[in-house]
Specification:
single chain; alpha/beta; eight-stranded mixed sheet; two-stranded antiparallel sheet; 19 helices; 49% helix; 11% strand
């Protein structure tokens, strides 16, 4: 049996997300294709635009067989941690044979060679990496510069400079490194990306960034509330789900958390929590106007927008080192349970297989299965539920409608 996994955020789902699904089914002849998806907060360091259940429903309606939640520590961390948590989650399902990812380069041999080189940590690479970081480079830039300098003339690494210029290649590389590090017996398969780049901002290209921009620019326009243009960039069934969420005001941006964020920033003034970035946030707190405006003020040449945003999200959600230690998310064993957000009824055999082979407990029905969790698994579930409630509370205030929690409604999603 071939079971393919795809790591994504679907924030929101668009036609570009169909390619790894189609590749899995048509090229790999996968029996099932499973999505590992961020929950109510995403790796860019901000609240997801739509709830994890709306996005799960969208993914299932588009053809994915199951959606599993990416544990929160991965969602709010660097590309390296995001990738490792995702790969460890896939491995712990006990059923994965392949994982498919989009990249500008689909030469898997190049991915594997660079990943192996990084994992072995040659001394000259480590020295140059540290030297680059000491000059103020961010880790991704320092790593890319070091690799390019050392390997660009090596015939085994032809094209490495161009390879390292793509964020999607870098993310795929981190997936491959995590696969080696965690001895995951899963075959990585890159597919060549088409359409809009992740950072593409033109209206309604095949990129989540452009769709979010389109939504934010048109949400208050009196002639744009039907958002029917979304049908041009996402499957019809998905567009109907997204349009319904928009019309019911069940969507959130950073601005919907502005007061909560400011309260927690101001609380930092009395905290012993200290780092160069935290101190910068404290010093600029009095100039706070809105989340995005504040992120722009805090970021520097060597501290990226995403880094600042992730730190601010951690501050808002109280995700500090004490919490990390308490829930055990920095342990090699993390994550300690797997959360099934939804599955197709035709994929019930897949769920049965996963229940048999998974190396950690599965939470399928939260009200029932969470009662069986113990130790770190229980603490991780409780914290995940807590931060999901923060997202839900903000959505209730904005939509002025009741939104059931995970224990009050029929989860997981089944279609």
């Amino acid at each position: 049996m071939i079971i393919s996994f795809v790591i994504s955020e679907f924030n929101p789902f668009h036609n570009g997300h169909l390619k790894p699904l189609a590749f899995s089914k048509e090229n790999l002849k996968a029996d099932y294709c499973v999505a590992i998806m961020s929950g109510n907060y995403v790796q860019r360091g901000e609240p997801a635009l739509f709830s994890k259940y709306a996005r799960t429903t969208a993914a299932l309606s588009a053809g994915y067989d199951m959606v599993i939640e990416l544990p929160f520590y991965g969602c709010i961390s660097t590309s390296q941690i995001f990738s490792e948590v995702a790969i460890k989650t896939i491995k712990k399902t006990g059923v994965a044979t392949h994982f498919v990812f989009g990249a500008e380069n689909n030469d898997i041999n190049l991915f594997k060679k660079i990943a192996s080189y990084i994992y072995t940590e040659p001394s000259n690479y480590i020295e140059l990496l540290k030297e680059n970081q000491s000059q103020g480079m961010t880790f991704p830039k320092a790593r890319s510069e070091a690799l390019s300098a050392l390997l660009k003339d090596d015939k085994d690494f032809m094209g490495i400079t161009d390879f390292l210029s793509s964020p999607n290649n870098i993310l795929g590389l981190d997936y491959c490194i995590a696969t080696i590090k965690n001895e995951a017996d899963i075959i990585p398969v890159p597919t060549k990306r088409e359409g809009g780049d992740y950072h593409e901002s033109s209206v309604l290209s095949y990129s989540a960034e452009s769709i979010r921009k389109y939504i934010k620019e048109n949400i208050n326009h009196p002639f744009s509330r039907d958002f029917s243009d979304l049908e041009n960039v996402m499957p019809y069934s998905v567009a109907q789900i997204i349009i319904n969420e928009l019309q019911e005001n069940r969507f959130l941006t950073w601005d919907d958390f502005s007061t909560l964020l400011l309260i927690n920033i101001l609380t930092l003034q009395n905290s012993s929590n200290s780092s160069d970035l935290i101190n910068r946030i404290k010093n600029l707190a009095s100039s706070y106007n809105s989340p995005i405006d504040f992120i722009e003020k805090v970021k520097t040449k060597n501290i990226t927008y995403s880094t600042v945003s992730r730190v601010l999200l951690s501050i808002m959600l109280g995700f500090d080192n004490d919490v990390k230690a308490d829930i055990g998310c920095m342990r090699p064993e993390y994550p300690d349970y797997i959360r099934i957000l939804g599955f197709k009824k035709e994929a019930s055999d897949l769920l049965s297989l996963m229940k048999k082979n998974a190396t950690v407990p599965l939470v399928v029905n939260p009200a029932r299965d969470s009662l069986l969790l113990t130790g770190f698994a229980q603490k991780q579930f409780d914290y995940s539920n807590k931060i999901s409630e923060i997202w839900r509370a903000s959505a209730i205030i904005k939509s002025k409608n009741a939104i059931p929690n995970e224990f009050q409604t029929k989860y997981p999603v089944k279609i």
